[in-house]
Structure formats: structure tokens, C-alpha cells
Amino acid sequence: MSAAVIPDGILEFDPYRSVANEELATRIDAVRAQLGSRLLILGHHYQQDAVIAHSDLRGDSYQLSQSAAGSDECRWIVFCGVHFMAETADILANRPEKIAARDGQRVDVILPDMAAGCSMADMAAIEQVEAAWEDLAEVVDVDQITPVTYVNSAASLKAFCGQRGGVVCTSSNARAALEWAFQQTPRVLFFPDQHLGRNTSLGMGIDADEMPVWNPHDDQLGGTTPEALQQSRVILWQGHCSVHQMFRAEHVRQFRERYPAIQILVHPECMQEVNDLADISGSTGKIIETVRGAAAGTEWAIGTELHLVNRLKSEHPEQEIHFLSPIVCMCATMHRIDLAHLCWSLENLLAGHPVNTISVEPETARWARVALERMLKIK
Ligand code: SF4
Hints:
The chain has a five-stranded parallel sheet, with helices on both faces. Strands 2-1-3-4 form a four-stranded parallel sheet, sandwiched between helices. 42% of the residues lie in helices and 14% in strands. It has helices at residues 21-35, 49-52, 61-70, 83-93, 96-101, 119-122, 126-136, 155-163, 174-184, 194-203, 226-230, 249-258, 272-277, 284-292, 306-315, 339-350, 362-377, and strands at 39-44, 57-59, 76-80, 108-110, 145-150, 167-169, 187-191, 213-214, 234-237, 263-266, 280-281, 299-303, 320-323. It contains 17 helices and 13 strands. It has three domains: 14-117 and 334-360, NadA-like (Rossmann fold); 120-242, Rossmann fold (3-Layer(aba) Sandwich), CATH 3.40.50.10800; 246-323, 3-Layer(aba) Sandwich (Rossmann fold). The longest helix is centred in the last third of the chain and has 16 residues, at 362-377. It is α/β, with parallel strands linked by helices. The site of iron/sulfur cluster has 13 residues, from helix 6.
């Protein structure tokens, strides 16, 4: 098939829709062979298998960005994940010292489908957060609040934290980040994921009464009260992951009734009632390591994204792995990146017309980096 070319030399996407996956795979391999180690294709753990098969590295969002940023040869990153991940890759791969070491050359970071966003990240738009900060200033001293954002957030929100003495966290270091934040100020604003914030804070012994939830759609102090904010320790932003919130306490109970030896393993983006009932709660990395390290014959019900659970099932046939929910819980936005989009973006790159490049505005990138670097210093 010869792809149609639109006036500026970019290959049109539409013809790629009708190409069979076998042919797309062959063409993707051909571009990879031509671009060699200057090209890095990153595949997030939640990505579909057909795309993972073409990834140079597989990991969670932060691991992938760090690995890509550490490569000296890489000139193009194709991030098979979602928008905030590509932003983080751009921020880390295009640090001023990295650009200088490459004689001024930037790394192009490409997201094969611009519609691959994250509903959780979208729940904390920077305008909402700035408005909330102003409202908070009317009832508490905001100089005594450390903003902490989960890495699953827009670059603008990471920059907001960087500018205000705050920090970024991942699901694996959320507790360390909160402990660090409490060394700075007596109060924290945690966003966008209320569940990660709540589960982590409860694990640190913080009382539920000290965690009001800020609803960005309620213009009356986010639906809280001055008293609740004044006695708060962690103000939780009302955001969630649409995938992980589908796991329910009744799913845990049903598995326990049916399989008495079952181990329930969940991600801390799940709701508190699920997290509390689980045997183990941990980041994507911890989930993978836990399964890898378990004895043959272990029975698991795992509460995280479907593609990862299915991959664990096929990579660990010696264990009995179940998906915790009867409903399909998959990251639909990440799923938008398929072989057609990957092939289209790669062939445009080869033709000298990178499409869907993600470039964070320099001042935003600078402050976001401040918050990311604070996270790296936390032990
Ligand atoms: S799984 Fe949830 S948090 Fe992760 S990218 Fe998808 S919507 Fe966002």
C-alpha cells in the first residue's frame, strides 16, 4: 500500500486503518531497522500485547521516561502510553544539560495518537487547581501547604508544585513523598488521585477526619468547610482512575468465598474499601515483582489494568491468576495506540515529518523538573 500524502508532506492516517496487523508489524520492524538505536519505542505496562511486541523498553511511566532520558544515542522517543507520560519523557530527555551534550539537538517525543489522554490527569486542570489554591488562601495559610502531585498529572500541575515548594510522587514512593512534605509544612494538598492519597495517608496513621476532599466543581470551598480545612492534614483532590475505581469490595469477598487460599493483590489507586480488604497493595512494579517472586501454585486475584493482568497470566502459567473484577477494566485511552497509529507515526518520522510531537513549554518544563528532582532526592 502506498500511503496518501497531504500537502505539507505528512502521510495521512486514514489509509493505515485498513492495513492488516501482519503488514503493519512488518513495516514497523522495517522502520526500526533503519533508525536503529536513535529510535526508542517505549511501551507502558498497560499497553496491548501487539504494541508491546514492538517496544524497546517496557515499564511504568516514570521508569520509561528515566530510561529514555539516560540514553545517549536516542534522538526520537515514541511513547506508547498516554499524554502525561510523553510530557514527562520530554521534560527529562530534554533537560538543558542533555541538550547541550547533544550539541543543541532536542529529542523528539512522539505520542502515536493524541487522543491517548488520562482521565485522571484531566480531573485536575491547572485552572481549577489555581482557583482552589486562591480559595484555600482565604481560610488557611497556603505557605503552610505543600502541594504533592501524583506523576499521573499534566506538566502544568507538576510545575505548579515545583513553584510552591512541592513535589511529584509515584505510587511506589507516595508515602516517602508525604513524609517529606510533612517535614516542610503541617498540611498537604494531594492530587489528582484521592484514593492513592487517602490509602497512603491512612497507612501513615492520619485520621480520615483530617482528610477533607476538595471537589473542583463545587465553588463553595470545594464542598468542604473552613473548619474541616483548618483541622486538615491532607486535602485530597477529588480525582480518580476510571480503571481502578471499578474494582469493588464485593469482588474481593466473592473471590475469598470461592477460593479460600486466594491472595488479593491491588493497586493503591483502588478505593479504600478494596485496598483495606486486599492482602497486598502496591505499585505496578510491586505487583509484577510480587507475582514473579511467588511460589508455583499461588492463587491470585489482581486488581489492576486488564492488559497487565493478562500478561502476568501468560508469563506465569505456574501460578493461578484471576482478574479481580467481572467487568473489563482496561485503560481505554491507552488502548487507542494500536499498530496502525504506531506504524503511521514511525513512517512519518522516517520520511522526515515527525507527527504528534509533545513539547512542554520551557518555563513549565523547568518548574516541573524542580518538582521531579525533589522527588528523586527523597530517600
Ligand atoms: S489506567 Fe487510569 S491513571 Fe493510568 S493512564 Fe489509564 S486512566 Fe490514567
